[in-house]
Amino acid sequence: MRFFLESTLFLAALSPVSAERVLGAYVFARHGDRTPKVFGNTRLTNLGYREVFDAGSYYHNRYIVADSPHRIEGIDEKVVNAKQISASAPSDAVLQNSATGFLQGVYPPARNAASETLANTTTVEAPLDGYQLIQLSPISSGKNSEDATWLQGASDCQRAGLSSNNYYTSDSYNALLKSTKDFYQSLSPMLDRAFTSSQMTFKNAYTIFDYLNVASIHNATKDFPHKSDLTDEVYRQLLALASNQQYNLAYNASDQVRAIEGAVLAGEILSGLNDTITSQGKSKLNVQFGAYGTFLSYFGLVQLPAASVNFTGIPDYASSMSLELVTNSPGKDFPAPSEIGVRFMFHNGTITGSDKPTVYPLFGQSKTLLPWNDFVSETKKIAVVSDEKWCQVCGNTEGKCAAPSSSHSGSVDTSTAGGSGGMSRAVAGVIGAMVTLAVILGLEALFFLVGGFRIAKRRKAGSEVEVPTVMTEDKKS
């Protein structure tokens, strides 16, 4: 079946009659330039705002404008249609503001729709020349990720945190910690405003790189007196070491729970693209923003380092990747899933001028166009597609993973769960206790009746009667 589909797509691409049709896309992007993490309270800079806006403008020209050969079929060109686009970002100021700036580029102000006339003939002009409002949905993962100096700092997944911590006891980590000690100590003149001497080690490779990277972009010599020490060679070494550390914190082939953020993203991508297919193209474009760690986790899971070793490096500001649903099926009807392929593209850094993303193969394959059914089967192997699956993978038992009953064993009693006629352990326990009490009371009554005994109330002066109290446990929902 795979050979037949790929052959069909290939032959159709050669046909002068049939042209490729883009049915939908899922874009995942990193924030723009920001202040350094080491001081906390990170914010998007004006440069970062410009970077994400330019990146969004590229996707406007690719997916929205009428004369683009890659325009998403049927997408509204001038005025955004909320049913056609979905946008999301974690509850993080840098990421949410980046997403907003990016979307301004995707759908610029609609000046032709900037005014409307009311029933009383009053004309109302829209603010900002028709600035288009696009709803941005929050996502639970990655909260405050741009204030976290540790990759898993924004992840609540317990097993992922433990897995990442295991890296700090590995031979490869300890070897680099030792071999780079002198290198990091030599950076002291550039770091002493933000780091103590004991912090100038490979353990803080990313935070050190981030601090010096921001300083090299924004600080003049008077604010960065040792700027000349940050040579190109030193910068490349800092980036290589930070990338090595962060990729190993984000992904491990033998312990894939470490890549939980990438697994969640894979599930969201699968869901978003599947919505395009099941809705027959009514849902067209998904845009999501996230941190560099999510990129690295996803890259590892879909085996992109097999296509290029660059996928083990930290993506630059405003980097983006896009997964497109394409077909060579002729006509205007929405094609069958067997006629749809998935193309993956990535661009490191913001897209400006004549730049454009590069196409890469997924899952270690040689072909860059993957049949939809194959994409689904491969993605399901790595994706986390539900809260229940996330809780199972992460081993969490609190919050959204809290059990509905007071039992904290994490297991489900299959003898009572799932059937409409079954009852919970709590209900069964109450009923059992009531039956036992009734039997005891019945026996006592019989005992007093047969034996001729009667109950006499006796109370000492000044004494008080104790009333038993039934305590109910406050259970988490």
TrEMBL record:
Tree of life domain: Eukaryota
Database matches in InterPro entries: His_Pase_clade-2, His_PPase_superfam, Histidine_acid_phosphatase
Example GO molecular function: phosphatase activity
Comp. bias regions, Low complexity: 405-415
Transmembrane spans: 426-450
Keywords: Membrane, Signal, Transmembrane, Transmembrane helix
Chain positions covered by the region annotation Disordered: 400-419
Pfam families: His_Phos_2
Protein name: Acid phosphatase
Native source species: Penicillium alfredii
Family, as annotated: Belongs to the histidine acid phosphatase family.
Range of residues in the leader sequence: 1-19
